[in-house]
Amino acid sequence: MSDATEKPVRKSKRQRFLDVAQPRTRKVLRDIRLLGKCSNTASYAYTGADVEKIFGVIQTELDRARIGFERDKDGVKFTLGDDEEGGEEAARTE
Question: Which residues lie across from 91 on neighbouring strands?
């Protein structure tokens, strides 16, 4: 029996990430493989526009997800550029 006053051990952020990211990634890969089976023209009819729409929306969501991993954790940095022409580099974010 465990002591009633014992606190449960909290998992590290890394371990929680692995616990969640690994099964979610496996599910996404499985679902992509299943989607690929829709390319069988013996069973399905589709147009090029259908394919572009499907993969366009998937790519958009992939891009959004990646941005979440790549964004600057300190927030957006703003600078006033010192370019001589005063063009679009005059105000930018990095």
Answer: 80
pLDDT in tens, 51-72: 999 999 999 999 999 999 887 6
The string of pLDDT tens digits covering residues 3-50 is: 667 888 899 999 999 999 999 999 999 999 999 999 999 999 999 999
Separation between Cα atoms, residue 46 and residue 52, nearest integer Å: 11
Which residue in the block uniquely carries the two structure tokens 């063009």? 87
Q: What is the DSSP string of 60-85?
A: HHHHHHHHHHHS-TT---EEE---TT
Beta strands, E only, the chain: 78-80, 91-93
How far CA 34 is from CA of 21, 28, 30, 54, in Å, comes to: 20, 10, 6, 13
